[in-house]
UniProtKB/TrEMBL annotation:
Function in brief: Catalyzes the conversion of dethiobiotin (DTB) to biotin by the insertion of a sulfur atom into dethiobiotin via a radical-based mechanism.
Species this chain originates from: Bradyrhizobium japonicum
Gene3D superfamilies found in the cross-reference section: Aldolase class I
Iron-sulfur as UniProt keyword: yes
This protein's name: Biotin synthase
Gene (name only): bioB
Length: 417
């Protein structure tokens, strides 16, 4: 049996394999769910909730169950093979069990630019009400995931990103360095874990990793994972072989931002194309890693460009599991050093729209928090942001001190995830 039919509130959530023949399994599972989900033993009220699909390495993932359905309900966690039910575990929500958000957030609809723009232009209170409602359906609204970022190779990058201090094209007086030693990276990761971070992100200023660097990178991934931290890297473009190797090493996330809309992209960078970005994201996804991908606001782009960027992300075959929203930090010596800053309300609108369009993704307040007031950050959290970088440095830019973040969390009643 998939569920306890004698229980008056039974909710069944399936964990399905990934494969070309998954559709018949989905249909059989949906039929079973229609029989299992009910508020009385005799009258099914709906079909099924949150079937996870396109499951790559792990082969299964937990589907999310809204908090409003948890109280008093029982949950059947079912892992199916192609031919049979592998495992059935009953959890009682009254005992405090929580079914986590599914591993791979899926696109719930294909967004048009017109629909996204209409949502973006809602009255501000209506937009925040909608985004907060969506947020509560997928996450605890008072918990925030903490990540820490370390620059493991600084400067000397051959790309000409107009916002970046590490580009060799810009006169930023930033000296290039070699790849940091593995032991030092691990020591910094240990400090990050002690400070409450659950994910450790490592960035290298490369166009793409060189073959001579891959052995050290793979060693770093394994060593950091042994500390019990999630791992994330941003190393520039990847080919499929490099992505496969990082995945085999156990890398959880790969960050590769699209930065802005496809239309505005040539105004930001000329040394790689928008399609190059998407190709790397495809290699990462096909290798089985989770995608971290977002953009930067305040580079001179229009509001339409910001919305178009989110449409691109939301309409990927699978939405990014993590969506960093950065506010430009103007760096002297870069082409965008004097860009007009984005207004706080416009920034919050994009955070809210990201939450609405990618409801199961973590939306991260990334670069630029040092220039945000507590009130602006509070609005971002209310709009659906639920992840931040902690630590006083992001690559080469400043970030709020840990004590400032702890104080803000106390004032807002937020807790680390």
């Amino acid at each position: 049996m998939l569920a306890d039919a004698s229980h008056p509130q039974t909710l069944c959530v399936g964990l399905l394999p990934f494969g070309a023949r998954r559709r018949p399994i989905l249909q059989r599972c949906a039929d079973a769910f229609a029989m299992c989900f009910s508020y009385s033993p005799w009258r099914p009220r709906c079909s099924y909730v949150g079937i996870a699909r396109r499951l790559r390495q792990q082969r299964h993932a937990a589907a999310y169950v809204p908090r409003s359905l948890r109280t008093g309900a029982r949950f059947a966690i079912v892992r199916l093979s192609r031919r049979n039910v592998r495992r059935c575990v009953m959890l009682d929500a009254n005992d405090g069990e929580t079914i986590p958000a599914k591993e791979r957030p899926q696109r719930s609809q294909r967004w048009t630019v017109e629909d996204a723009w209409a949502a973006y232009r809602l009255p501000f209170n209506d937009l925040l009400f909608r985004s907060q409602s969506v947020h509560r359906e997928h996450f605890d609204p008072n918990r925030v995931q903490l990540s820490r970022l370390l620059n493991i190779k600084t400067g000397g990058c051959p790309e000409d990103c107009g916002y970046c201090s590490q580009s060799s094209h810009h006169a930023t007086a930033l000296a290039a360095s070699k790849l940091m030693e593995v032991g030092k990276i691990v020591a910094e990761a240990r400090k990050a874990k002690d400070s409450g971070a659950t994910r450790y992100c490592m960035g290298a200023a490369w166009r793409n990793p060189k073959p001579r660097d891959m052995d050290a990178i793979v060693e770093v991934v394994g060593a950091v994972k042994e500390l019990g931290l999630e791992t994330c890297m941003t190393l520039g473009m990847l080919d499929r072989d490099q992505a496969d190797r990082l995945s085999a090493a156990g890398l959880d996330y790969y960050n590769h931002n699209i930065d802005t809309s496809e239309r505005y992209y040539p105004s930001v960078i000329s040394t790689r194309t928008f399609a190059d970005r998407l190709d790397t994201l495809e290699h990462v996804r096909e290798a089985g890693m989770k995608v971290c991908c977002g953009g930067i606001l305040g580079m001179g782009e229009s509001e339409r460009d910001r919305v178009d960027m989110l449409v691109t992300l939301a309409n990927l075959p699978e939405a990014p599991e993590s969506v960093p929203i950065n506010m430009l930090i103007p760096i002297p010596g870069t082409p965008m050093a004097k860009a007009t800053p984005i207004g706080p309300i416009e920034f919050v609108r994009i955070v809210a729209l990201a939450r609405i369009m990618m409801p199961a993704s973590f939306v991260r307040l990334s670069a630029g928090r040092s220039a945000m007031t507590d009130e602006m950050q509070a609005l971002c959290f209310f709009a659906g942001a639920n992840s931040i970088f902690v630590g006083d440095t992001l690559l080469t830019a400043g970030n709020p001190q840990d004590e400032a973040d702890r104080k803000l969390f106390r004032r807002l009643g937020l807790e680390a995830l």
